[in-house]
């Protein structure tokens, strides 16, 4: 699931890898868990974990 976060006056591309079977379920997961996902993305950005212009995140196990 792709999304972007604000990074100053720029946008940062992010990818959330999920184990959900459909895009709709992944979108619902992203919206329902946005505060936690955004924090993960911002933490990764602060640590410089940007590869090829993207931050790659993995969905935590449930």
Write up what this structure looks like.
By secondary structure, the protein is of the alpha+beta class. The protein contains two helices and three strands. The chain has helices spanning 23-32, 34-46, and strands spanning 2-7, 10-17, 54-58. Strands 1-2-3 form a three-stranded mixed beta sheet, with helices on one face. The longest helix has 13 residues, at 34-46. It is globular. The relative contact order is 0.25.
List keywords for this structure.
2 helices; 62 residues; alpha+beta; three-stranded mixed β-sheet; 3 strands
Average pLDDT number: 93
Order of SSEs: EEHHE
Helix and strand composition category: alpha+beta
Helix content: 25-40%
Spatially, the strands of the biggest sheet line up as 1-2-3
Number of extended strands: 3
**Distance between the first and last residues' Cα:** 17 Å
Number of helices: 2
User: Residue ranges: pLDDT <50 for 5 or more in a row?
Assistant: none
How many strands, what sense, and barrel or not for the largest sheet?
Answer: 3 strands, mixed
Proportion of residues in β-strands: 25-35%
What Rg is obtained from the alpha carbons, in whole angstroms?
Answer: 11 Å
The coarse overall form would be globular
Topology:
Elements: E1 2-7, E2 10-17, H1 23-32, H2 34-46, E3 54-58
Task: Put the structure in a nutshell.
By secondary structure, the protein is α+β, with helices and mostly antiparallel strands.
């Amino acid at each position: 699931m792709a999304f972007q976060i604000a990074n100053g006056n720029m946008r940062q591309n992010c990818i959330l890898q999920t184990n959900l079977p459909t895009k709709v379920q992944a979108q619902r997961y992203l919206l329902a868990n946005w505060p936690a996902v955004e924090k993960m993305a911002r933490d990764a950005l602060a640590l410089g974990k940007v590869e090829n212009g993207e931050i790659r995140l993995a969905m935590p196990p449930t």
